[in-house]
Amino acid sequence: MNDVDTKKYKVRKSGNSDVTTIPVEVKEKLNLKTGESIRYIFETDGSVKIVKAEEEVDVDSIVDAVMSQYEQAIKDLVDL
User: Fold this and answer.
1) Is the model's pLDDT at 33 over the cut of 80?
2) pLDDT over 60 (residue 1)
3) Which region holds residue 15: left if phi is over 0, alpha if psi is between -120 and 50, else beta?
4) pLDDT at 79 over 90
5) pLDDT at residue 64, rounded to an integer
6) CA 40, 44, 45 angle in degrees (round to 5)?
7) Are 32 and 23 in contact (CB under 8 A)?
8) Do the Cβ atoms of 55 and 36 come closer than 8 Å?
9) What residues are paired with 55 via a beta bridge?
10) H or E element that contains 62
């Protein structure tokens, strides 16, 4: 690894977890926004890659939203 391309960041304690910052350059490179998720990929050579995690579809919340939106219409159909 070339020293020009590396930076060192301290790992700190936060409650029961260890944390570090994500440099702005990494956020930009990953097109990562605050609140989005990252994924760690553990390579067979012992290295770890950080990638932007694809957001998973939360089917339950979609169903809840649709049910809320059409709740009265569904009740009216049941009453027919």
Assistant:
1) yes
2) no
3) left
4) no
5) 83
6) 100
7) no
8) yes
9) none
10) helix 59-69
Bridge partner residues of 74 (DSSP): none
Q: Which two tokens stand for residue 37?
A: 């998720």
SS3 52: strand
pTM, rounded to two decimals: 0.56
Output DSSP code: residue 68: H
Sequential DSSP letters for 5-39? G------EEETTEEE----HHHHHHHT--TT--EE
Q: What is the 8-class DSSP label of residue 70?
A: T
Both tokens assigned to 25: 């350059």
- For residue 1, the one-letter residue type is M
Quote the tokens at residue 56: 């998973």
